[in-house]
Amino acid sequence: MSSRSRVFRHKFYPRKPFKEIFIKADLAELVVEPHDEDYLDLSGMVLGGAVSDVLLDHEEVNGTLRITIRNREGHRFFDIKVKMRIPINTLLDLFGASLDIGDIRVDGLPVKKMYLYTANGDIMIGGVSAGEVKLESINGDIYVRGGEIKSLHISSTNGDVRIESHVEDSRIKADDINGEIRLLITENSNALIEASSVNGLIKVYNKEKLKIKTSEERFLQGLLGEGGSDVILNTVNGNIRIEVLAESLPEEA
After folding, report:
1. Among candidates 120, 210, 248, 229, which has minimal Cα distance to 170?
2. In 3-state terms, the chain is what percent helix, strand and coil (to 5)?
């Protein structure tokens, strides 16, 4: 592969199955998805630079893989788009990604725990199966669609949060300082929903499907089914929109 090439690809064959994977990077976009091969596949494209401008380090110790991707010292800033395809022959204990700049998208990954952080970018996860998921963005939106997550905690400073989910035997907590929270939840969910906003309004669509326990301008508590799950939504400067849907989620966002 030429040093001036814009495309790179690495395959990581673990000495024993990966149990934890961490990635730290400055990227335009990180896309993560599962596959059924016995290796981790990492590929990418450099925009505005070349592969020789990129420093890619990795360390593998006792089933833990740590990957770092960044500009080489002294090289100008550019964008890198990366895709990670993670083997699912062994369920990961933990997947973590931390970006100073860039979007993160995770599709259909099964994992026990997941932690995603970006300082300047959006986070999008869809069809994720996990025991615990923590998502944090400073300047960017967060979007969660479907999947089966037992414990979901979302934190946003400057951005909107959108959650589309069927909720049963699980817990969702979303905190947003400057942005709107929108919850789309199926009507056959079992959940106690609590929403509060300091300087915003709370709006409920298809209100007849939600058993309202408390309703004020900036606080609401409502019940779907028998409860059993907690959905807690908090904003400081932003509205909260709750929409109760038919049993299936919409095809498009």
Report:
1. 229
2. 0, 65, 35
Q: Can you tell me whether residue 189 is helix, strand or coil?
A: coil
Average of per-residue pLDDT across 16-44 = 94
What is the rounded CA–CA span in Å between residue 114 and residue 134?
6
93 CB neighbour count, 10 Å cutoff: 15
Integer Cα distance of 248 and 37 in angstroms: 31
**DSSP state for residue 203 in the 8-state scheme:** E
For the cut 50, the answer to whether the pLDDT of residue 153 exceeds it is yes
Check whether 134 has a pLDDT greater than 80. yes
Q: Give the span between the Cα atoms of 194 and 147, in whole angstroms.
A: 21
pLDDT in tens, 74-87: 666 678 999 999 99
202 Cβ contact list (under 8 Å, min separation 6): 195, 196, 217, 218, 219, 220, 239, 240, 242
Q: What is the pLDDT of residue 253?
A: 44
- Residue 59 CA from chain centroid, whole number: 24
φ/ψ of residue 161, rounded to 5: -125, 130
